[in-house]
Amino acid sequence: MPCTVVVGAQWGDEGKGKIVDALSAEADAVARYQGGPNAGHSVIYQGQTIVLHLIPSGILQPGRRCLIGNGVVVDLAKLREEADHLESLGIDVRGRLGVSPAAHLILPYHLAADRAAEIGPGAIGTTGRGIGFAYRDKASRVGLRLGDLFDPEDFRERAARNLRRLQCEFPESEDLQKMTVDGMLDGLRELAAWVEPLQADVSAELHDLLARGRRVLLEGAQGTMLDLDHGTYPFVTSSPASAAGAPLGVGLGPRVVDRVIGVAKAYATRVGNGPFPTEMPEQEAAHLREAGEEYGATTGRPRRCGWLDLPALRYAARINGLDQLVITKLDVLDGFEEIRVAEEYELSGRGVASFPSSARALEACRPRWKTFPGWRAPTSEVRKWEDLPEAARAYLEWIEKKVSVRITTVSVGAAREAEIRRDTNAR
Ligand code: IMP
Asked: How far is the CA of 131 from the centre of ligand 1 (A)?
């Protein structure tokens, strides 16, 4: 499959990092297409957990070209920090990483504005990484792109204008009021010199690789339910997290995509505010949170926990055109006596036929539950589909039947080898 997209089929944190890491072993290049350092893709590498925020998870496989596309918003300080950390572990980053000069920059005023906007009613529960404000500038056509760093006069003028605008918008933000454009540029100078040689024509590179029959992996961040258009707006991130965003965010046409893999947990989690129909009462959630170590990889926030939401997963299958499904963290459910799934939603006692397009409508929906007996047996050492407990298989087979997408891989632990590949040639 020359061009594969890996996408989150829930609210992010599905375990995409591990899946991309595994798929990268058979890819020539891996590219991020949207989002920014709000992402936190955890991969176990030589026994330690590495959390990647901006650099594609393919970096942990030697020799892979890793690209950051035009659709990503880049915080250079964070990128540098991440690259330095990986290099300190002996991983070659500078020889393999390329960044599109068309990627927009997250600047210090975006971080301060994100913090200020999150105070009071209407808070989204963002990661505080300046994402929404960087994308807002992009859509308003006042954003500064990575390539703009190398025209310092023009950069200075536009950055000063943007800073003034935000200072007027948030007079109560001390951070914004005391910020100066000169201070900001001082902080950027060294980073600009560092990133200059990493600039790459991501679109042309990927196009050429595909034309030569090479394999490319496009790595999604966040998840479908956080997609700016198709998620639970306004409780979403500010980028196209679903598969359609992939070619757009790296500069390719939609027809290059051969395969779309959706990643979903065997249950559901969400961080931040917004509707979450299958959310558990806190006591139950606390149990799952501990079992699944459900704390944000970027912010450390405890994740909200719930059961699998089938209407949302079916919706994600449609929005992304999923070809395959990967189910992660099955082992986290090993100890549960029973497992619940929202089979559909109801509103005022009647079934809801189509997925609600507004957060308020979704908030009003109640799940119609289906209960499965738990398998109460460890699955973390299982490596073959046939060796899974019967009850676990029944649960998975029911999911794939209802979603009409084949489950090709099941992950049963954080380590690379902790997975069940259902079809040996699935990849
Ligand atoms: P932002 O992307 O930081 O603006 O946050 C918007 C919403 O998306 C908030 O609910 C965040 O918690 C959520 N979010 C952003 N990035 C991630 C992620 O990588 N995993 C899970 N949730 C995320």
From this structure: 9
Output the residue whose Cα is nearest ligand 1's atom 15: 38
Ligand 1 center to 210 CA (angstroms): 31
123 vs 115: CA distance, rounded Å: 10
Helix orientation angle between 108-117 and 131-139, rounded to the nearest 10 degrees: 110
Instruction: Give strand ranges (E) for 138-287.
Output: 216-219, 259-265, 268-270
Cα 16 versus chain centre, distance: 7
- One-letter amino acid for residue 122 of the chain: G
Q: What is the pLDDT of residue 298?
A: 83
Q: Give, for ligand 1, the residue of 114, 222, 269 to mutate: max count of ligand atoms closer than 8 Å to Cβ.
A: 222
Instruction: Provide residues with CB under 6 Å of ligand 1.
Output: 12-13, 38-40, 124-127, 129, 131-132, 221-222, 226, 235, 237-238, 271-272
CA–CA dist 418, 400 (Å, integer): 21
- How many angstroms separate the CA atoms of 295 and 302, rounded? 4
Omega within 30 of 0 (cis) for the link into 234: yes
- Reported as type and span, the H/E element at residue 344 is strand 338-347
3-state class (DSSP) for residue 259: strand
d(CA 133, CA 114): 7
Could you tell me the CA-to-CA distances from 284 to 258, 278, 330 in Å, in that order? 40, 12, 17
pLDDT along the chain (427 residues), means of 10: 95 94 95 97 91 96 97 98 97 97 98 96 94 98 98 97 98 98 96 98 98 97 98 97 98 97 98 96 94 91 97 98 98 96 94 91 96 97 97 98 97 94 67
124 C-alpha to ligand 1 centroid (Å): 9
**pLDDT, position 164:** 98
Helices (H), 335-421: 359-364, 390-403
Q: Which two tokens stand for residue 253?
A: 């046409």
**Which residue numbers are catalytic?**
13, 41
Residue located via tokens 């939609």: 254
Nearest alpha-carbon partner for 317 in 425, 215, 378, 230: 230
C-alpha 126 to ligand 1 mean position (Å)? 5
Contact 9, 262 (CB under 8 A): yes
For residues 318 and 225, is the Cβ–Cβ distance under 8 A?
Answer: no
